[in-house]
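Journal club side-thread
Mid-discussion, someone asked how the predicted structure for our own chain would compare to the paper's figures. Pasting it here so we can look after the session.
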Amino acid sequence: MSEFYVGYLPQAPPGLARSVRRIVLGLVAASVLTALVLVFWLARFPASVFEFQQYRDFEGTLREHPYPNLAVAPAMPGYLLVAPGKHGATELVAGFDGRAVRLKGSLIYRDGARMLELVPHSLQASGNSPIPAPHAIDLGMTTLSGEIVDSKCYLGVMNPGNGKVHRDCAVRCISGGIPPAFVVKDADGVSGTLLLSGSDGLPIGRAVLDFVAEPVVVSGRLSRSGGTLILEADPGSIRRVNK
């Protein structure tokens, strides 16, 4: 005869109780296994950081081109400069090109690339001697595959800061003057981040919006300036990768 449980009885029949225990233990084991799979198999977020509202003092030489940046030592990567929110820092730094300055900012960094979210009105001349402009090393013409991202989110403000899930945000950031970057991978799968400018060395801005967050191929002239890789490209050289 099949066992069944009557709600007002203090205990379920022994056979039914054993079946329920097995089912519950199975569900608990399945839940633990699922959690372990999610922890160890899914891709982890990159080690990127945004020191939100943690303001530090910085000194160096300001350069406006191709994008605002603060040089702190010869032949070493400096700090890209951006404004709060989805805005570039071009207006905030106007008139300080080549001058020694001090400023306040929040640090953003990832894989050795650094950026500062500049505190508005904190920029002022320091009176120190400017750091000599770095000599740009021409690495020649090249064609690279990768993804165009907005540098602020990619370096640490958002996680993830790339891919289709981030496309709308990246478009708004680049439209607001955030420097676009080109993320590439070498044969070993190691990522590298290049600044992307126009073929004239000036900001490329809105000309890349249709290609953001998609696999693309870009042809242009690669150079190294102060430890930063810059790819100067004509927007017409950008093409989607056929899948």
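Post-session note: The chain has a mean pLDDT of 86.
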